[in-house]
Amino acid sequence: MRTYHVAIAGATGAVGTEFLQLLESREFPLASLRLLASERSVGKVLHYRGKPYTVELLDHDSFEGIDIAFFSAGGSRTKEFAPSAVKAGALVVDNSSAYRMDPDVPLVIPEVNPEAILQHKGIIANPNCSTIVMLMAVAPLRKLAPIKRIIASTYQAASGAGAQAMQELLDQTSDVLHERPITPHVFPHPIAFNLFSHNTKIDETGYNEEERKMINESRKILNDPSLKITATCVRVPVLRAHSESVNIEFEAGKRPSIESIRKALTDFPGVVVVDNRETNHFPMPIEATGRDDVLVGRIRYDLSNENAIELFLSGDQILKGAALNGIQIAEKWMHQVLLVN
Hints:
By secondary structure, this protein is of the alpha/beta class. The chain has helices spanning about 15-25, 75-85, 130-140, 165-175, 210-220, 260-265, 285-290, 320-340, and strands at about 5-10, 30-35, 45-50, 50-55, 55, 70, 90-95, 125, 145-155, 195, 230-235, 240-250, 270-275, 295-300, 310-315. The chain folds into two domains: about 5-125 and about 320-340, NAD(P)-binding Rossmann-like Domain (Rossmann fold); about 130-315, 2-Layer Sandwich (Dihydrodipicolinate Reductase, domain 2).
């Protein structure tokens, strides 16, 4: 079996450490491992298979001899250093938004559009976490009938803003319970016992960046520029795993049966149907946390629209919404390269 020289850029962040754990748990065929980060993290020691690895400085010379570079260091760092990785001969799998909408860079969910992987020119982009969770449910249903419109409302966990945001939720929860004053640092508003519109910039249309990402990325991944899709993204006081309410409208007269929808979702890799009406048990972030699969339930007809259905989803933002999807991209790329060669 061929082995690969791997680097993780942003190795000490929430997604970077998840990359490291997944390389081990999925028995990724490593020849060597290089952990990279900014100046403030240089010298930290992380472990892989019980062996210590010292974090090195991310710079333009970090990628000599590297086959695959997983980037989770933020968009500006990706823009600065990814070209150097590509120049050194590495395949870059990037978790930031830096290249997602670049027409020359594939935007990939391996279960949805794996064919796009071989179109890469050195960089493959990992989609936004909310986009991934939603399209894992949408993709199998597109095979049943053409989709006319998607309406998504998200309930996004603190994990989407990184490890410091997760800690802020824990700290603020303790502060509230002990009747201490709250001073937000990572988020613009209190997150404990509160929710607010996603903390990204609002454009002239009134949509925020997260909502625009879901719209534009979905169209690119599904190769459907005319897809009608809208989103409302909200930050909620959940530690980890995003949830979404999704309304899917099919072309007139072509709405599939509930039975066929349930079967399509059940048969789709990476999706687990959690839909027990008798016990009122449906997807919950507490049950999605730590799981590779996206949980899908509340499968029902939209009573206000004879062509639409309703779903509720939960998926681990750090796993399938980020690091796991990136690892799967690399695994699929390795498999495709073997087939081509």
